[in-house]
Amino acid sequence: MKITKAILPVAGKGTRVMPLTLHQPKGMIALADKPMVHYVIDELVDAGIDTIILITNPCQDVFKKYIEYLKPDHAWGHLDFKFAYQKHPRGNGDAVYTARKFIEADEPFVVAFCDDIFEHKQSPLPEMLSVFKTSAQPTLLLQKVPREIASRYGVIRPSSKLTGRTIKIADIVEKPETAKIPSNLTVVGRYVLPYKIFGYLKYLYPQHQKEIGLTDALKLYLADHHELAGVKLTGQRFDCGSIEGMLQAQVYFSTLHSLFKIQELRSKI
Ligand code: G1P
C-alpha cells in the first residue's frame, strides 16, 4: 500500500527556543532562506507524500498564508494541504489525534516534527516506509546519542534481536532521568504509523487534563502488540528544537546555498 499522507504538528509553543517563538511559531523560523516547515515538506514530497495535514494553533494562519503564497508556481503545486486546529497545545499525541478525520480507516501515515531536520537529500523516510511495509508495525526513527543528553528525548529499550540498522523495540519512555535511561537510542521526529494508533490515542483522550504524547499511545500499542520497529539514523540530524541544533543547521544550510561556496566550512559542521 502506498503511503501518501503526512501529519505535521506545528501548534506547539516552542518554549525551548524562546524568544524566537514569541511572535512566530517554531516551524516558521528560517534556516538560511526557508522556514523549517519548508524543508520538511520538501523531504515529504521526495518520499512520495502528496497530502500534508498541518495541525496548527487557530491563531497561526501564517502556515496557510505561506503555502498559499508559494503553491501556485512551486513544486508543491500538486500537493493537497489540509489544516486542522489544536485549540490548546495538549501534546503531540493530541495533535495527531486531531488529524484523524483526514485519514481513511486502515490507512497508514507519516508523522513529521518540523524541528528535526536532516542533511540535504538524506531523508530517512524511504527506508522507514519500506520497513513499515514489511513489518506493519509503527516504525520509529532512532538516533544514538551520548547518554548525558538522552533524557531530552523519547528513549527506547531494544529487544534482543537486532538486524542491521532495523531493530525491534521492546519499550519506550519519554524523557527519562539520565540514571534511568534504558539505552542511548533516542526517538527522532519521524514516525510511520498504522491507523490503529488512533484507537490508543482515543483511549488516552478523555483523561487529558495534561499533555498526551505519541509516546503514551506507543506504550499502549506495545502492551497489546509487543513490538515496534526502529530504524537507526545514518547521517546528520539537526535538533532545531534547541538553539544549538538550530545554529548548526543555520550554518550548514547557509553554506549549502548557491550564494556560498564555503565547502571547507561545511565539511567541519
Ligand atoms: C518529541 C517526542 C520525543 C522525541 C522528540 C524528537 O519531543 O515526544 O519522544 O524524542 O520529539 O524531536 P519534543 O521535542 O516535542 O519535546
Distance between the termini: 38 Å
- Helix percent reads 25-40%
Number of helices: 8
The structure class reads alpha/beta
Report the strand count.
13
Give the names of the bound compounds: 1-O-phosphono-alpha-D-glucopyranose
Overall body shape:
globular
Report the biggest beta sheet as strand number plus sense, adding barrel if it closes. Answer: 9 strands, mixed
Strand % is: 25-35%
Q: Mind telling me the C-alpha Rg?
A: 18 Å
- Mean pLDDT metric: 91
Strand order of the largest sheet: 5-4-1-6-11-8-12-10-9
- Taking pLDDT < 50 over at least 5 consecutive residues as the criterion, the unreliable ranges are none
What's the order of the H and E elements?
EEEHEHEHEEHEEEEHHEEHH
Keywords:
single chain, 269 residues, alpha/beta, nine-stranded mixed beta sheet, two-stranded antiparallel ribbon, 29% helix, binds 1-O-phosphono-alpha-D-glucopyranose
Structural account:
The chain has 269 residues and is an alpha/beta fold. The protein contains 8 helices and 13 strands. The chain has helices at residues 36-46, 62-70, 92-98, 125-135, 197-204, 214-225, 243-256, 263-268, and strands at residues 5-9, 30-31, 34-35, 51-56, 80-85, 109-112, 116-118, 139-144, 154-163, 166-174, 185-193, 228-232, 237-239. The strands form 3 sheets. Strands 5-4-1-6-11-8-12-10-9 form a 9-stranded mixed β-sheet, sandwiched between helices. Strands 2-3 form a two-stranded antiparallel sheet. A hairpin with a 2-residue loop joins strand 9 and strand 10. Helix 3 (92-98) packs across helix 6. The longest helix has 14 residues, at 243-256. It is globular. The protein starts with a strand and ends with a helix. The mean pLDDT is 91. 1-O-phosphono-alpha-D-glucopyranose is lined by residues 92, 113, 116, 153-154, 174, 186-189, 213, 215, 241.
